[in-house]
Design a protein that fits this description.
Distance between the termini: 67 Å
Helix content: 55-70%
Largest sheet: 6 strands, mixed
Strand content: 5-15%
Number of helices: 14
């Protein structure tokens, strides 16, 4: 697309200044310099390119040089060139000031939009209108991925910029919003394009040197982004509490955990009744609780559980017998296993025994 034609008025009385300087040898006045800055600001707001504006200054200088420097001496030539330097410098200063202000305004508007979008604090209709400015059509389904690394990130940090560059290189035509929130990387993409979030997860895991990524389910409408974002955050929280070390977590695979804790009081009662007696063991409940957790994670295979715990199979068997003696439930018995395993999951979710139930 051709750049818009720059009108002669954009340079103000530039030719008049050149003519007067050629005859008097003076420098630009403070008022003239301020006028040049204002012209630069106006040119930036009009959307003109600085390169084209500098080129126009030089072209006008060249076109009017014979008139401005008739019978010019070396001193007059130097005065005109000094005036050109002053005029262009002041013009560019005003242009750059306006651009910086515009960038700050855009950043503030983008940050406000992201906060409203992820927290659902704005009118949904108005939010959907604002979203089009940032390339999102909230009437459609969107999914959100959140990446947590070893440190907190801002949008200007190398890690988010590297991930953004990788995404744009592969999906330059897609409607994607990449940002940071509370020190984490956040990617919002259409729900019909799961490959975007998969690539985001891969790039984020590498860029954060092993950070964990959670992907929420796709939901429709402005409120759908909030729902998917909340699911991704909850998945990261679950990973911490449950000791899940998978590099990529899908909220759809973890739905059982919110179901188990929906009735917190019932889960607390189950943990107390099933696992409470373990507190009478020497060393407290934690070693035996860890034994149960690893035993279930190993598919109730004693040899594998013992290996993971760095124990002999005989030592593991002794621990399982002790659990049976204290709780009355046999971990190797399919009839008892479900209740015990559910209670162990509940203990992890409720942070028991560190937290009193």
């Amino acid at each position: 697309m051709a750049e818009p034609r720059i009108p002669a008025e954009a340079l103000g009385d530039y030719t008049g200044i050149l003519a007067e300087v050629a005859h008097t040898g003076r420098r630009l006045t403070r008022a003239e310099l301020e006028t040049r800055r204002e012209l630069g600001r106006a040119a930036a707001e009009a959307g003109y390119q600085l390169r084209a504006l500098v080129t126009l200054h030089l072209a006008v200088t060249r076109a009017h040089w014979p008139q401005a420097a008739v019978a010019a001496t070396a001193m007059t030539t130097d005065s005109v060139l000094a005036a050109v330097e002053q005029a262009v410098d002041a013009f560019a200063e005003g242009f750059e000031r306006a651009q910086r202000l515009t960038v700050r305004r855009e950043e503030a508007a983008r940050r406000e939009f992201i906060d409203d979008l992820l927290y659902g604090r704005s009118d949904m209709g108005r939010l959907a209108e604002r979203a089009t400015r940032f390339g999102l059509r909230l009437s459609r389904a969107h999914a959100v991925a959140v990446a947590a690394g070893g440190e907190a990130y801002t949008e200007t940090d190398p890690v988010p910029r590297a991930v953004e560059a990788a995404l744009l290189a592969r999906f330059s035509g897609r409607k994607i919003l990449l940002t940071t929130k509370d020190g984490r990387l956040v990617c919002i993409a259409p729900g019909s394009q799961p490959d975007v979030l998969r690539h985001f997860a891969k790039q984020s895991h590498a860029a954060t040197e092993g950070g964990q990524v959670a992907i929420g389910r796709a939901h429709r409408g402005p409120g759908g982004v909030v729902a998917s974002y909340d699911e991704a955050l909850e998945a990261l929280d679950l990973a911490t509490r449950m000791g899940l070390d998978d590099p990529v977590l899908h909220a759809s695979d973890l739905l059982v955990y919110p179901v188990l804790t929906r009735d917190r009081q019932a889960m607390a009662d189950l943990v107390r009744s099933q696992l409470g007696p373990l507190q009478r063991a020497r060393g407290g409940a934690e070693p035996l609780l860890e034994t149960l957790s690893v035993y279930f994670d190993a598919g109730c295979v004693s040899a594998e559980a013992a290996r993971r715990l760095s124990l002999s199979v005989r030592a593991l068997t002794y621990r399982l017998q002790r659990i049976h003696e204290l709780t009355g439930a046999d971990p190797s018995d399919p009839m008892h296993r479900y209740s015990l395993q559910t209670a162990v999951i509940g203990a992890r979710l409720l942070d028991w025994p560190a937290t009193e139930l």
